[in-house]
Amino acid sequence: MTHSRMEALWIDSAAASHYRFHEDHPFHPIRLALTEDLLDACGALRSDQKMKPLTPHADEVLDWIHRADYIAAVRALSESAPGSEAIALAGQYGFELDGDTPYFPGMHEAAAAIVTGSVAAAEAVMSGLTRHALHLGGGLHHAFQDRGAGFCVYNDAAAAIRWMTRKHGAKVLYVDTDVHHGDGVQWSFYTDPDVFTFSIHETGKFLFPGSGFAHERGESSGYGACLNVPVEPYTEDDSWLESFSTALERVIRVFKPDVIVSQHGCDAHALDPLAHVHCSMRIYREMPRLIHRLAHEWTDGRWIALGGGGYEHWHVVPRAWGLLWLEMTDHPLLEVIDAAPEGTPLPTDWPRIVSPHRPADLPRTWLDDTAAWAPMPRRAEIAAKNREVLALALQHLG
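and the corresponding structure tokens:
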């Protein structure tokens, strides 16, 4: 790696391969392997763009985000054979074996390594080593101060943000594009005027975690530094992108951040099994494009991107995260994709990963041919409702 500033760094997510609840759990690390395999097959991920997060930031930063008794409970449940006292308290901390976030051996080490990766991404950007950094193993936005939830043990996104506010005095804009509300990050900074949390997601009326409504705007000195844009089930590309772009343009003009942290859960896709939004791969091309442009306009390019949800491992996640990296690196393949949105082919030898879960029908193009999709009923009504909610959400931003 040269000493001049890189345009984008890929933060190694090897440690996230150990963040594995069980083989049939929807939050499976094969998503990361498939994405890296796709980018390698395209020649879009060079060795000089990769960085291993060597500095063990996690121990210092975990205490800034999580309660000491919670960290102790995670450590105890991470043993190969946890004690009876730890098991008895597991439910109190969100780790029921039959729940969404069951404890597993090595849980603390794997989750702490993910925190280290996201903090390393933040430090690489804030130190001037790179303009942009991507840590796809991160984005675990549902973890709370005192409990795990929604597949998330430690909140690496909140840790990276806190690192930048404390170590660099930065004003941070957090942009959450996961279909589930970024609740853990929001509540971590709900009274902090130096961290603006913006989340677009399927309305909590119908989807976990049941929060993220337009009236959630921050409290105390943090009032106004929080924006939620909940959209209706079966929202499609045009309406999602209208809500997202209108809101983000307004937020960045009002808040004027020093750096952007974005979370790129890709579960708003029509094929995702855990939500009801009906978007295509187009939003995963357009959302990073807008964030990228705004980063260069407002934050001197300072942009940290994290992974997140996304549970259609073979058809959706690799393409969505692949498009994110192509955007962060201004890769020439994007021009080809944009010129033929109906079907730029994926590499014929992808995926090269052997798995018993490999489906027979794999995607053949970067973007979806939505002309072949059945028209969604109530499209106009859904779009009108989303505009109404957006207007309500934006009232406090002037």
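(Above: one complete record from the training split.) The mean pLDDT is 95.
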